[in-house]
Known about the structure:
The chain is 74% helix and 3% strand. The chain has 193 residues and is mainly α.
Amino acid sequence: xxxxxPGLKHxxxxxxxxxLFVFGLLFVLVFLANDxxxxxxxxxxxxxxDRIALIFLPAFIRVAAVLVAGLAxxxxxxxxxxxxxxxxxxxxxxxxxxxxxxxxxGIFMAYWLMLKVLSSEKIPFTLVNLVVLTVLxxxxxxIIHGMIWGLIDFExxxxxxxxxxxxxxxxxxxxxxxxxxxxxxxxxxxxxx
Length: 193
């Protein structure tokens, strides 16, 4: 087991390599499915093509990764994001690495802030905490991405409206992700019964 900060020990799960692989793969698969879905729907669901979407289902994978697998899930998200950026989008190596770190930092910061506010080692799994975590993550993720894009490419102007669109896309993605997961679990329970 990897040694971590005492307040974050619970974030390193049993079988971390398995969780890392699972969430990295899930992030890639859900990203590709989301990209295909947006291509079928219309380009009007993208505020900035290849950057900001009004429906971003991988946001759900980010939230689920930190809740289920902690740091291993976050590393999986980073690796999955790197694979997408480098191999699918075609970004260069340095930019892909930066995006991979950026991809996991919003949810990590949101989770860490929730732990501090709740003075807890774990976030109790309640609807209120899930909503607060999701809103906090969506805001932080949008702000961090906007700052990074603005610092890297000064010609690409990220407007406040784009940040709001990214936040909305993440919120919609998380809500839809939980709803789809709930439907899948209920369908499985009906089939099993």
